[in-house]
Amino acid sequence: MKKILGYSILDSFGTAIYITAIVSFIHYCDKYRLIGDNLLTPIFFLMLFVFSASFTGFLVLGRPIMLYADGKKRDAVILFFSTIIMLLMIAIIVFLISSLIV
Length: 102
Description:
By secondary structure, the chain is mostly helical. 87% of the residues lie in helices and 0% in strands.
């Protein structure tokens, strides 16, 4: 059980760090006008969206799917929901911190 909770913490913080990096990238691209207003911009953002969905999907679902395939269904469900709960807790903490800053 400790190992499952460790994986959920690792996967949820990995997802949060990735999201923070992508949002920072988009923020600074907009701030410094690094991305132009042409046909390639929406193509880039759609490709980034597909990559992000795949990467975060792998972080959240990869290990639970492998556990489920190995016949460890209970562990897979516990890991999935604990990862989702950890992500929700991180989102709430970020929201509370942002509401204090503003």
